[in-house]
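Chapter summary example.
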Amino acid sequence: MSPSKVIEGAERGWIVPIGGAEAKHNDARILERFVALCGGRDADIVVIPTASQLADTGARYEGIFSELGAARVTAIDFDTRRDAEEKNRLQRIEQASGIFFTGGNQLRISTLLGGTPIAQAIRASNARGVPVGGTSAGASILSEHMIAFGKEGSSPTAGSVRLAPGLGLTNRFVIDQHFRQRDRLGRLLAALAYNPFLVGIGLDEDTAAFINPDNTLEVEGSGAVTVVDASEMQFSSMDQVSENEPVCLLGLKVHILVAGATFNLATRTASAGSLVSPKQTH
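The structure predicted for these 282 residues follows.
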């Protein structure tokens, strides 16, 4: 599944995966920046709380984005796949200047929205410049390859991760969230062993990857983003080991990025960005 085609002369919208547990009130810089990208005081944001089974999730994010200055915020939930065909909901998505997925269970999003007119409308909106973001499960769903679930631990093992199709806004990376807090390096590495052409992005809590139309990832938030580049992987034993056995991987590149640092998904190059002082550049 390829991302929706960007029409000539236009730019794809920003893609903003967040690692979960983002600051929502004091120093809410991640969500503040998302609102700014969506138009600031003119922002018209649709919140999709489908991943969550808590009744107040949509209303809570309506309040948060309104407090941060958005002009209009509407939560639209989906309980059945038929809901994702309703014209009123489709029209509301098409009106939005920003779309945001809440946390919960990413498989609820993929099973209820995958392949539906709503999913197609979100992909088309992003292709014509509308920012799309999500936190926790809402971050995982954004890419084509989605980590559905897996085991905790720092070492990759066979069978430690299960992948499923995501929304497909991009096919360049695979995301994992609550990364350091839930010890998820192993399952991200296992996902890359299955798909070495991807970039692995591990998002700590209260940390986001703001991915601009030029495919440059900019880090925002209080934690770190772990980027694993498997493009030059020299060896993987994934095809040789049995279930639950450790996997040997050689030639991976790992970058630890904090706020201000960047990673170009096209050239596979990392930069300390604003962390580098003028004296260090000479």
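To summarize the output: The mean pLDDT is 96.
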